[in-house]
Amino acid sequence: MLKRLFSKRDTSASIRTDAIPSALPRHVAIIMDGNGRWAKGQGLLRTAGHAQGVEVLHDIVQTASDIGLEVLTVYAFSTENWKRPAVEVDFLMQLFSTYLDKELQGMHENNVRIRFIGRMDELSPLLQEKTANAEALMRENTGLRFNIAVNYGSQDELLRTVRKLAAEVKAGAILPEDITAETMEEHLDTAGLPPVDLVIRTSGDQRMSNFLLWQAAYAEFYFTEKNWPDFTPEDFVEALQVFAGRDRRFGGLPRS
Ligand code: FPP
User: Fold this and answer.
1) Whole-number Å distance between alpha carbons of 203 and 226
2) Which of 24, 92, 97, 126 is most solvent-facing, going by the fewest CB within 10 Å?
């Protein structure tokens, strides 16, 4: 059994060490979908689905850290999610704030390094302060790199990146031909992180929803019918096992 490093609740879900594939992806991205459907199925308000989703997120971050995953990025709130009813948006922002209050210390003690991607400047001043403080607290940590996408949209990120590069060209700092895939990557919110190897999406929907479009160019996909609040550490490890069995070609020829 794996040692539980920062247990908060007993998930009774200790992962057998021999279930963990030796060839782990470097970077896993998760679209945590289906909170609303889960809540509806339980006869609860949608917000109850998000509250349960936070508990599941705790377990998955813990598992990712325990098994030695290098990078985990989760989609918590998209640039399009502002279109939801104000009561749901407010609840999600409050949940995000309490999540940071409750989880940061445990993550820090376990050497997790947190980072936020997306338009943080459009969040409340309190959330901007909390997220900046969290990043500063864990900046030197060398364990799991845990990224939370908040007010994130991949098209928005690419537009911001192109504008930054255009400004550098205009200022005479670089020439248009200096813009390469590498310079693009250095200006994305994910600068310094490896490309996404595996995208997991819960709830049965099979789409990218404006998440990490550049970074996941050669990612493998794992879809499950389970809604996010039902997703378990065992399901996470199963996705890693499926990934380990995939033949990745990156545009090249199949291995014969
Ligand atoms: C998608 O389910 C989920 C979201 C839009 C929010 C994801 C948020 C969490 C898992 C918890 C909050 C995270 C943090 C870091 C505090 P949905 O609401 O679209 O579900 P539906 O498709 O069934 O309606």
Assistant:
1) 5
2) 126
